[in-house]
Each structure stands twice: as C-alpha cells, then as structure tokens.
Design a protein that fits this description.
Immunoglobulin-like, eight-stranded antiparallel beta sheet, 52% strand, 2 domains, 548 residues, 1 helix, single chain, mainly beta, Methylamine Dehydrogenase, Chain H
Length: 548
C-alpha cells in the first residue's frame, strides 16, 4: 500500500469525520439561540487582547450588569485604559441606565450581592471621574504609576461608597478577585507576587478583615459556597503555601492552586497541579457547595487524583469540579483523549464561568479550529486559524450539553459569562470586522467592537428571570415566615436544605405562607411547579426578628 494512498484515505476519513461532527453540532445546537446581541465600536485599533469587559447577573432584580470599554490608548503590554460605561440591562437587552467612568480606567472585576448592590474594581491611570459628580482621587505612588479602586453602586445606578485601594496598599497592582458572600459581605483579593491578601469590606467600603496566603503568586478568583466558605484560585511556586499560619506544600516549580477557607474562616485545604508558568485560573460555585475550576494547560497535570493529558495542539483547557472537602469529583479537558481534531479553546480573559440554579456550569472562551468537548459534542471550525467566541454548557456530572459560537472571521475574544438561575446565559466579547451571531449580523470593518448578548436555552426546565416579577417570595432573607406567590390550591411546595434534604412540605391550600421559624439558619431551596415549569428559589433563613 502506497504512502500516497494512505494520505488520501486519511484525508477522506477526516472529511467524513468533520461532516459527522457538523451534523452532531447542529443537532446539539437546536435548542439554543442568540436571544439578542448588541455591539458598540471601540475607539481602539491595536491589540484587543488587552481589553476588559466584565459582566455579572443581578439575581434579585433579574438584570445584567457589565462594564463596557468605549475608548482607550495603547500602552505596550498593559490593559486598555480609557472611558468605560457601567451599564444595566433587563433580560431583553433594554438599557436601563449607564454610568460613565474615565478618563483612564480599566475595570477588572465586577460582582453583585444577593441584595441588589453592585461592586466594581479595577485600575486607574488618573483621577477616576464617576458620572458627573463623583471622583476617586489618584495618588502618586513610588512603586507604581497606577492606582487600584473599588466602588459600590445600587440597582438604580446611584453610587454608594468609593475608595482608592492603593492609598492603603501601594505595592499591589490590580484587583484580582471580587465576590460577595451569601450574607452580603464583600471581599477583594490581590497579590504582590509574594503575599496574597483577601480582604473583607465593611458596609462603608473600609477594610475590616484580612486573610493572607504566603506564596500566593497570583489570584485568579474568589467564590463562596452557600454557607460562606471561600474558594480561592491562583498559582504558587514550589515550597510552603501558608494560609494564615496553616501550611501546605506546593510540589511543582509552577503550580495552579485551589484553596478553601471554611465558613468559620479556618484554612481548610489546598490543592495543586503542575503548570509551566504562573496563571490566573478562574472558578465559580453552584448552590450545592461545589466549585468549578478551569484553566488553560500547556503540559500534562494532575489535580486531586484526576489526570489531564498533554494538550493538543500546544494548549487547551481543563476543568474539574470539587466539593467543600477538597474531593475532586470529576475532570474534563479538550480533547478528552490524546487524539482528536486540531483545535483549542482559550479560556476568556475575565470571569468566563458561572452556574445556574440546577448546578450546570457555563464556560466561555475563544475557540480556534475544531474542539471536541466530549459526550459526542464537537464544535467545528474548518481551519485552525478560524476563531470564534464560544460558550458551552456543562452538566453537574461533567458532560458537555451544548456549545454556541459566534463572531467574525477576524479577531474574536470572549470576555465574560454570567448566568441567570433559570439558565439564560449572558456573555461579553470583542471582535473585529463583520460578525455573525446566527442571523444577527454586524457589518463593520477596520474597527474593534464590543458585544454583549444572551443565549437562551430552550431545553432548560427552569423559570426565566423575566418571570421574576410574577414569582415573588418575600421576605428573603426571612426569620419567621415567607409569603408564597399565588398558586393553584393543589400545588405542593417543598423546602430543601443545602444538601438536598426536604425539611418542609405543604399544599398551597393549607396556607399562602410557609413558617420557617423553627428551622436552623442557613440556605434553603423552595421548590414547586407553576404553569408546568419547575420553579426553584433560594431562601436565606436568618435569626429571629430580622424581618419583623
């Protein structure tokens, strides 16, 4: 058999395989569509990889909040500093308000608490002007020509507290993590490449508690479980990894790291995986106490007993799910085996992972070529040089459910992902040249453009956030009783604790309220059917007299 014959046979088999993969992708993508996508030109025509466009979802009000870059000037190997707009939209994409920030700002972190407040963090290169009346002053610092900032905004766009973080911590460049605990406490994280600090803010934005990690080279993200336990992702070099006096050993020259503090604030555990550099892995938590960890890998590695093989081609993504005990429950990567199509997924530049109320995780990144997600799901781009903004859904058991791609034939980069409890996935990204998101077309040339959009998953059996106003359960948090929405008399209402045990059950005909006075404080989930749809709502039980 000739070499020429073998090559022709292999090429023919490859074409057949790609055809099958395209059909597989089409079948898997039938129940997902771009509900809406909006774009704006950015007055910037240099390397768009330095653009930051974070996004978050306000579960209380059913809104999406994002920090859209508008203008900027190119400084080699630095983020884009310019004018940015903090924008609030409803679930249909309608702009509700915007807050201008400038003249030289890069927003790096954005989060929402469960009480309708937003928190914005980043770096400024000048006095930061917020709207028309507020300013965060810039301070000249010997060690850096940039200042870190954090401020609070309510759901109507009104600024609360604001501060220049660099005034207190001048040696730290950048805010590398920002999250709100279930009780509403806001924490931010930063590292000077030697000592990482994770800091809790009080109601006025002042530092009130500090956790330290010696050998925390970088921080990728922080996230909370339903009980207030804290997960921290980042990196470390070989040696002792010291969390507030408790020591673990990082065994590799370069390590990816995942650490955990218990709800009582006690260092719980730390896991490490081999890397070839110091990266910023990202994480998200579900409502059941699990954490989803993802990162790009450039070499084989092991996390919690799960092996991840060498990447194909030079890099790909890996992800795993762990619980609060530090047990890694499963791991996935692209491709699943050490053989497969030629392509890769670069994890997004901001927090590109989130979870819905059912425990599904959503992952955003920039796809090049063809990617095998496992579970028979393959997203196809004919050439390795082809790039798209890709968002994928991964089930609680680790199986890929669908992937959605959009963008242009030019440069594309995923920027952020935020998910409603009902499974609607919002994303941000940047692209150049004309772009398609299904039938949504943006005819542009020679510009870098920002985009924000919503992917609707019609296969999700949960209630959408635009029905929130019809499913009001209050007060929440509650200490005595909760008032239920109007339901058919025969409707069964069930209350589950955070580990899935049913603690109460009643018919709506028995009472339009549910008494929670005698159950312990903590996180609970109220479950019932309404209009043929299963509805799940998170309930916070507080101590007595909190809602009276």
């Amino acid at each position: 058999m000739s070499v020429k014959y073998l090559i022709k046979t292999q090429l023919a088999m490859r074409q057949v395989l790609l055809s099958i993969l395209c059909i597989t992708l089409s079948i898997n993508a039938l129940s997902q569509n771009y509900d809406w996508v909006q774009f704006e030109k950015i007055n910037f025509q240099q390397n768009p990889s330095y653009i930051s466009y974070p996004i978050a979802f306000d579960k209380l009000n059913g809104r999406v909040i994002a920090a859209r870059p508008d203008t900027g000037s190119f400084i080699y190997n630095q983020d884009l500093y310019g004018t940015t707009f903090l924008e609030s939209r409803d679930s249909n994409g309608l702009l509700l308000w915007q807050l201008a920030m400038g003249p030289a700002v890069s927003v790096q972190e954005l989060t929402c608490d469960d009480f309708g407040n937003y928190y914005v963090a980043g770096v400024m290169d000048d006095d930061l002007i917020l709207g028309s009346n507020d300013t965060i002053p810039f301070f000249n610092i010997t060690l850096s020509n940039k200042n870190n900032f954090i401020f609070q905004v309510d759901a109507s766009g009104q600024i609360g507290w604001k501060r220049n973080v660099s005034q207190q911590w001048p040696s730290y460049n950048g805010i590398q993590g920002l999250a709100a605990s279930p009780s509403g406490d806001v924490w931010y994280a930063m590292s000077d490449f030697f000592l990482a600090k994770i800091v809790r803010l009080d109601a006025s934005g002042n530092d009130t508690q500090i956790r330290t990690i010696d050998n925390g080279k970088t921080i990728g993200a922080i996230a909370f479980d339903p009980w207030g336990g804290m997960f921290i992702s980042g990196s470390a070099e070989e040696g002792d990894y010291i969390m507030d006096g408790s020591t673990w050993y990082a065994p590799h020259d370069y390590n990816m790291s995942l650490a955990y503090y218990t709800p009582a604030g006690v260092p719980g555990w730390a896991l490490f995986g081999h890397d070839i550099t110091f990266q910023h892995p990202i994480i998200a938590t579900d409502d059941f106490g699990n954490v989803f960890f993802t990162n790009n890998i450039y070499d084989s590695t092991t996390f919690g007993g799960i092996f991840f093989h060498n990447p194909l081609p030079a890099a790909d993504f890996m992800a795993f799910k762990a619980d609060t005990s530090g047990q890694v429950l499963w791991g996935v990567q692209q491709p699943p085996l050490l053989i497969g199509p030629f392509g890769r997924l670069d994890i997004g530049l901001n927090i590109c992972v989130d979870a819905d109320a059912a425990g599904n995780f959503y992952l955003g990144g920039t796809q090049s070529g063809t990617v095998d997600w496992g579970n028979g799901l393959v997203s196809v781009l004919p050439n390795y040089t082809d790039r798209r903004i890709a968002v994928a859904k991964i089930s609680p058991s680790g199986s890929a459910q669908w992937v959605k791609m959009g963008g242009s034939n030019g440069y594309n980069a995923a920027q952020g992902v935020a998910v409603s409890p009902g499974g609607s996935c919002y994303f941000t990204g940047v692209f150049s040249d004309s772009a398609y998101f299904d039938s949504i077309f943006f005819p542009t040339t020679n510009f870098t453009n920002s985009c924000i959009g919503k992917i609707f998953d019609s296969g999700f059996t949960g209630i959408e956030e635009n029905e929130t106003s019809e499913v009001l359960i209050y007060p929440n948090p509650a200490s005595h009783e909760i008032i239920l929405p109007v339901l058919p008399a025969a409707t069964i209402i069930k209350l589950y604790d955070a580990v899935g045990r049913m603690v109460k059950q009643q018919k709506y005909s028995e009472s339009p309220t549910m008494n929670v006075e005698n159950i312990p404080t903590g996180i609970y989930f109220l479950n019932f059917e309404r209009n043929g749809i299963t509805v799940t709502r998170k309930i916070v039980k507080m101590q007595m007299n909190d809602d009276r």
